[in-house]
UniProtKB/TrEMBL annotation:
Ranges where the ER-bound oxygenase mpaB/mpaB'/Rubber oxygenase catalytic domain occurs: 111-343
Organism: Gordonia spumicola
Taxon lineage: Bacteria, Bacillati, Actinomycetota, Actinomycetes, Mycobacteriales
The protein's name in its UniProt record: ER-bound oxygenase mpaB/mpaB'/Rubber oxygenase catalytic domain-containing protein
Alphabetical list of InterPro entries matching this protein: Lcp-like, MPAB/Lcp_cat_dom
Domain of life: Bacteria
Length: 406
């Protein structure tokens, strides 16, 4: 199955003009474009063998989850019942690639800590902007993760992963929660991929595989190049060196969650911009009613319930307006106008008013290391408090056994 991607005439004209005046080509090389096209039909064979044999096989999801938890706790070599597919998965997962630079990994994690809550909010706005595409909207709608009342809880699961992997040294520390959650995310993606691929609503002839290599690549850009550039508008002055570090950090995160980060992964920020432009230039706008279902369900999920009163209600409304404000800034206006969303103007006004103060701190941290440390600590603690408050007594499941909702 070969996916067809066609650059729109409008995007081609923009590319030609930019190239004529700046000599910068907005489109990636033919090799990268070819890898991106073929990547729509590629999954995660190693993890897929494990899931097919265990979660979707005779063992069953409950036993498979217990087995995975045990292997994560004591090491797969100490689990006598571990099937060969699990040993192969752990061997790949636990191998640190030769290209990994631990210093760059830590610098990239520090960038995430400075961005804090804004990283998740920008990521959400950018992700909602992609729901014009059925290849992205169908799996999310079928799995129910970001649809309706479950949207906020699914976001809290994602936030937990963000918070864990950006802890100092976490992603390179064997047995860390960051690595445990990353492997569970990988297994969950594979399970959803298999279920969606077998569903009659999925068009493999048009979209290839659900949660494909190419689409996972876009999420890595959504955690690196996109926020690094976009958050300048809110006062976050990420340097070119820091952008390269966060690209390296996301490359390793991709390795952990089963994304191939070889020929397609951007080597530079410019390469990342080109790949993002290529995605936008080849949109199909074929999600139909599923796009509005997902977009219009997410931001309103922050609205306080009828029983919430007082400070809790005010706090929830503040986050509702903030999330809507981020969509004002980071969803493309011609896409956002197609959805019914809160105005976002109060949140936008707050973000714009705050930007100069953020910029001052960003400048100070470059000359006073203590300011840098404080900025990271305050941003992460604020993000964690928000996460704990919203999560309440619930737990993140990263459930690979959940059936599709229709």
């Amino acid at each position: 199955m070969t996916v067809e991607l066609t650059v729109s005439p409008q995007h081609r004209r923009i590319r030609d003009r930019v190239k004529r005046f700046t000599r910068f080509d907005l489109l990636p090389s033919d090799a990268v474009r070819g890898a991106f096209v073929s990547g729509h039909s590629d999954g995660d064979p190693v993890a897929e063998r494990f899931v097919a044999q265990t979660y979707h096989g005779e063992m069953g999801s409950a036993k498979a989850r217990e087995l995975l938890d045990e292997a994560l706790r004591v090491g797969v070599d100490n689990v006598p019942d571990a099937p060969e597919s699990m040993r192969e998965l752990f061997a790949e997962f636990e191998t640190v690639p030769d290209w990994v630079d631990p210093e760059l990994i830590e610098q990239g994690a520090a960038v995430w800590r400075r961005w804090g809550y804004s990283l998740g909010a920008v990521g959400n706005a950018g992700t909602m902007d992609t729901y014009t595409e059925a290849s992205l909207a169908v799996p999310l709608s079928l799995s129910g993760g970001y649809a309706g009342a479950s949207a906020l809880h699914r976001y809290l699961e994602t936030s937990r992963w963000w918070l864990e992997v950006c802890r100092p040294g976490a992603v390179l520390t064997p047995g860390s929660t960051a690595r445990e959650v990353s492997l569970k995310v990988r297994v969950m993606h594979v399970s959803v991929r298999a279920r969606v691929a077998a569903h009659p609503e999925w068009r493999s002839d048009v979209h290839g595989l659900p949660i494909s290599q190419s689409e996972m690549m876009l999420t890595l850009l959504g955690g690196s190049v996109a926020p690094a550039l976009g958050l300048f508008a809110l006062g976050f002055l990420t340097s070119p060196a820091e952008m390269r570090a966060v690209l390296h950090f996301n490359r390793y995160l991709g390795h952990l969650v089963g994304c191939r980060v070889d020929e397609m992964y951007p080597e530079t920020v410019a390469d990342g911009v080109r790949l993002l432009y290529y995605f936008d230039a080849t949109r199909k706008h074929d999600s139909g009613p599923l796009g509005p279902e997902l977009v219009e369900g997410f931001v309103p999920s922050f609205r306080p319930g009828p029983s919430v009163r007082g400070v809790g209600r005010a706090r929830a409304l503040a986050h509702l307006h903030l999330q809507a404000g981020y969509t004002r800034l980071f969803m493309l206006p011609w896409n956002r106008k197609d959805y019914r969303l809160p105005s976002g103007l109060p949140g936008l006004a707050f973000l714009v008013a705050r930007a100069p103060f953020v910029a001052v701190v960003e400048l100070l941290r470059r000359v006073v290391p203590a300011v840098d440390d404080a900025q990271q600590r305050i941003a992460v603690n604020s993000w964690r408090r928000w996460h704990a408050w919203h999560l309440g007594s619930r737990e993140e499941a990263f459930d690979a056994s959940k059936a599709l909702r229709r």
